[in-house]
Amino acid sequence: xxxxxxxxxxxxxxxxxxxxxxxxxxxxxxxxxxxxxxxxxxxxxxxxxxxxxxxxxxxxxxxxxxxxxxxxxxxxxxxxxxxxxxxxxxxxxxxxxxxxxxxxxxxxxxxxxxxxxxxxxxxxxxxxxxxxxxxxxxxxxxxxxxxxxxxxxxxxxxxxxxxxxxxxxxxxxxxxxxxxxxxxxxxx
Length: 188
What we know:
CATH topology: Alpha-D-Glucose-1,6-Bisphosphate, Chain A, domain 4
Order of helices and strands: HEEHEEEEEEH
CATH superfamily: START domain
Shape: globular
Number of strands: 8
Number of helices: 3
Largest sheet: 8 strands, antiparallel
Structural class: alpha+beta
Radius of gyration: 17 Å
Helix content: 25-40%
Strand order of the largest sheet: 1-2-8-7-6-5-4-3
Oligomer: single chain
CATH class: Alpha Beta
Strand content: 35-45%
């Protein structure tokens, strides 16, 4: 069995354990990369959710994954070319740059610097109205771990952690909006 085959098996196993929608890009040659996504429907408009999620001054009000979130370079709002720095609850920080920003539908980022064990990371957030006042929110991430010779093993492990945290983030966003009234400005 080639290491790519084993990587694909591990990636699929972690997909099952995470209960998520991991799309392991697991051809024998490309098994070192992993793409995963998750989604949820939230009772709010795409514009309200897009605005809330891209407002770094409010990010910690709903995002349990982070302990710190800030825009860099003097930016006060997110947009193409703007960099952000976020620190996860595990203490690891990552700087990202917006490569797409299409209010209120989608935005995408790529990692510019981050934890030593992550070789590359990119993500997109999508917001689609499915009914009046109901929005489908989808998070999709792509990552590859390093060192390259061990990424076949580390990528699915790190991907599993990100997938688990992504689910928690979406559930927390829904709870903040629907149960704590975060959009109404009366969060509890």
